[in-house]
Amino acid sequence: MGLSFDPDALPLPIGHFIGGRLIAAEGTIDMRRPSDGHAHAGCPLADAEMVDQAVESAKAALKASNWAGVRPRERTRALHAWADLIEAEAVTLARIEALLSTRPVGLLVAGDIAVAAEQIRFFAEFADKEGSGLVPTDDQSFGMIMSEPYGVVGAITPWNVPVATAAWKLGPALAAGNAVVLKPSEMTPFSTVYLAELAVRAGLPPGLINIVLGDGPTTGAAIAGHPDVSKVSFTGSTAAGAAIMANIARTGIKPMTLELGGKSPQIVFADADIERAASAIATSILANAGQACVAGSRLIVEAGIADALVEAVAMRMRDVRPGPTWDETSRYSPIISERQLRRIDGLVEAAAAAGAECLIGGRPFDETGYFYQPTILTGVDRSSPAVREEIFGPVLTVETFRSEEEALALADHPTYGLAAGLYTADLSRTIRLCRQIQAGTIWVNRYSRSRDHILPTGGYKRSGIGKDLGREAYLANRKSKSVLIGL
Ligand code: NAD
Asked: Are the C-beta atoms of residues 82 and 204 closer than 8 Å to each other?
């Protein structure tokens, strides 16, 4: 089946998904298709009362289904069935996702959606393998650590990879025996609603997944501050993460996982395989047009190879062509909104005013929609706005170094520590630098996640607290209780 579709004829699930059914609601928040800038649909806004209804539905579903108390393999089985249906419905899901997001439909079925299904299966398998344990005591006592789910988990996700991020939140929370109230971004909400519909069709108890649509200050804040939401899992900007921490401090103390922004370096030594490094670097900044938390947006290269490497990267970035996300041949993403397009352009202009030279790109494409040219800025240092700020666009800065110490100093960002790339053939240097680089993920001689979901992802510094993926994400959805019995 072809994947291309008519953007004006695609049915969308417009509404909240509570108690296992779609509650149709009027779309009051303006939404634009990034590919052509046309107004489309509109996102409903759930108020605190609607969020409360979703939380009550989650609590009722936990009770009625005994989700936390069934044989754990039952949870595994149900989640596998959901993953199967996600794969079977991948084309519909991909189209809903592509219409209003930056994700080209041609990349979704085998990419984001296949990976999301796989990650749900990955977490499903923890349900009957991780649990409580006995601890050593004297023979007059019996000690154990009991592991339990939280109950209702609140999740809030960003717009940049909506289905994949929802799977990161829902998979571990549900496998661990919780129910979820999730708010997707108001810019890309409908694929997450459809994902929840598929869960119910696959046999998950209605009400276990509730999706409420709306903005951050109204709907997101009501979830984070709700007294019956026992844990919050957030992915988004550092500023919103800080607002959520403040909200939680004000309304009650509860655990939270925060996956926040980044400004990740890619450090290339002269002994690296230049062509391989160039490919990885270009791919990382072109992917989703740089709108990825882990975008490797700061190239830090040994002076002797700088010209050759930068030219090899530029060659791979020059020829991209914009195309709408609903055309299956499109590969290069639009920017999510006109506001974000202007912000990227403003930061590039500010960097130029501060002395940066624009080697390629540097402005929006002339084509319709919010597309920005792949851009390389040289002549920058850490005072440049392009080096300091998370641009969240296809903009790569270049800095050079002459020693390992200088490379490390340049790589260290005052605010962020999400990911880092390191390209070298020297094993000792690799280990040395991996010990010193302050980032939650380091990729060596590559720059991308693999499908090894056991590797957790999360930030150092203000890039976040806690992890998504891996065993850690599963365990973060359970709390532990120490029990000591006197015999
Ligand atoms: P954002 O922070 O503006 O919004 C993220 C989500 O939070 C949205 O659903 C939004 O409605 C909600 N929100 C905003 N303010 C809130 C508040 N006060 N209370 C509760 N909810 C609130 O981020 P965005 O523009 O959607 O996404 C881009 C950002 O996300 C970038 O900074 C990027 O680095 C980050 N991100 C991080 C990761 C990661 O794994 N670390 C992954 C993807 C994106």
From this structure: yes
CA 389-301-276 angle, to 5 degrees, is 105
**Residue of the CA atom closest to atom 20 of ligand 1:** 220
pLDDT in tens, 79-109: 999 999 999 999 999 999 999 999 999 999 9
CATH for the 265-452 domain, from 3.40.50.2000, 3.40.309.10, 3.40.1000.70, 3.90.1700.10? 3.40.309.10
232 C-beta closer than 6 A to ligand 1: no
* Token digits of residue 350: 């500010």
Task: Report how far ligand 1's centroid is from the alpha carbon of 217 (Å).
Answer: 12
- Kindly indicate the confidence band of residue 200, based on its pLDDT and cuts at 50, 70 and 90: very high
Place of tokens 């390209």: 423
pTM: 0.97
- The hierarchical CATH code for the domain 15-260+464-484 is 3.40.605.10
Ligand 1 centroid to residue 260 C-alpha, Å: 7
345 lines ligand 1 (CB under 6 A): no
Taking a C-beta distance cutoff of 8 angstroms, is the pair 57, 19 a contact? yes
Pocket test for ligand 1, best of 101, 115, 156 (most atoms within 8 A of CB): 156
Predicted pLDDT of residue 171: 98
Query: Would you give the distance in Å from CA 299 to the centre of its chain?
Result: 22
Instruction: Return the active site residues.
Output: 259, 293
Residue 346's nearest CA partner among 294, 314, 385 is 385
**Cβ-based burial of 85 (10 A; exposed 0-12, middle 13-18, buried ≥19):** buried
> What counts of helices (H) and strands (E) characterise the chain?
16, 20
pLDDT over 90 percentage in the chain:
99
Picking from 127, 144, 148, 126, the residue whose alpha carbon sits closest to that of residue 135 is 144
| pLDDT value at residue 236 | 98
Tokens for 296?
């490797």
CA of 463 to the centre of ligand 1 (A): 12
Atom of ligand 1 nearest to the CA of 459: 41
Closest CA relative to residue 50, chosen from 92, 19, 78: 19
Question: What does the pLDDT read at residue 1?
Answer: 62
Fill in the DSSP letter of residue 273: -
Show me where the domains of the chain are located.
Answer: 15-260+464-484, 265-452
The percent of residues in the chain predicted with pLDDT above 70, rounded, is 100
Q: Residues 279-297: pLDDT tens digits?
A: 999 999 999 999 999 999 9
